[in-house]
Each structure stands twice: as structure tokens, then as C-alpha cells.
């Protein structure tokens, strides 16, 4: 059984290295995409400071549908191209938004969210969903977070069978 006892500390690179190590432990012997997404959302919600939401949206029938998450109840469905999550799918690239209030068409599932990082999950060249992190702090996410979360998303995809 996996037991995380302390929040990772150090530089952002060191924090993401530790989270990657812990994710490998959580994913060991488990291929279920939903179970792995649930554990990853929980680990990120606990292991990264200053988050108010951590989770997944899964692309189903041309729209994003809420998946495993940690935080307040969230929007259940998001159209491709709408909000930060839908934009990440349409653009097929990570969206790093320092101030969501300045993002055209931002969807405010939690009014406390001020910055957001959304990583598209790509399998065989197709977007299958997104990893979404929200913070109540403006400018919470930077390029180190983008690289770290893209790396963690890649670990998730490698460790998990398709939805």
C-alpha cells in the first residue's frame, strides 16, 4: 500500500520529481484509467501547494465530461473550444493562464479560481481528455509547472489503459 506522509518540498523541479516517483508507486500494477486518474488527482491536490481543484475531464462524444477530481463540485460538461479546458483540446496544447478573469470565455466553475493550468491528454495523436489544475492565486502556475504537469500526464498515459 502506498502512503504519502509529507508534502514534497524543494524547488519545483524537485517537487515534480518526487510526485513522479510517487505516481509510479501508485500506478504500479494498476492499468485502470479511472483508478489511476483518481489517485493522480488526489496526489496532485495534496502534493502541490495552493490548489483549489485538481482533476480530469474525459473527451466523450465531442465534449469534455467531468472525471475524477479533488475540490468543490465542478462543471460536468465543457464544449470543445470553450473555457480553458475546451481551448486546450481545440488547440491540442497546454494552456497556462495566469489570470482566468482575463481569459476570453473562461468558465467559472469555482469563483475562487484565479489561475489555471490545463494539459491535454494525447493518445495515438488524439486528445482523449485533459488534466486540469486550478488555484485561488493569480499567477500560481509557470513554465516549471507546465513542464512538470506535462511529464506527469505522460506518466499517467503510459501507465493507464484507454478509457
Describe this structure in words.
With 163 residues, this protein is an alpha+beta fold. It has a single domain (12-159), classed as GAF domain (Beta-Lactamase, 2-Layer Sandwich), CATH 3.30.450.40. It is built from 4 helices and 6 strands. A 6-stranded antiparallel β-sheet has the order 3-2-1-6-5-4, with helices on both faces. β5 and β6 (126-135) form a beta hairpin. The model has no long low-confidence stretch (mean pLDDT 94).
Show the helix and strand layout.
Blueprint: H1 12-27, H2 33-47, E1 53-60, E2 63-71, E3 77-79, H3 83-91, E4 95-97, E5 115-123, E6 126-135, H4 143-159
Antiparallel strand pairs: 1-2, 1-6, 2-3, 4-5, 5-6
Helix pairs in contact: 1-2, 1-4
Write a short abstract of this structure.
This protein has 163 residues and is of the alpha+beta class. The chain has helices at 12-27, 33-47, 83-91, 143-159; strands spanning 53-60, 63-71, 77-79, 95-97, 115-123, 126-135.
Estimate the strand proportion: 25-35%
Mean residue pLDDT = 94
Decide which structural class fits the backbone. Answer: alpha+beta
Task: Report the helical percentage.
Answer: 25-40%
Q: What is the alpha-carbon Rg in Å?
A: 15 Å
CATH class: Alpha Beta
- Which architecture per CATH? 2-Layer Sandwich
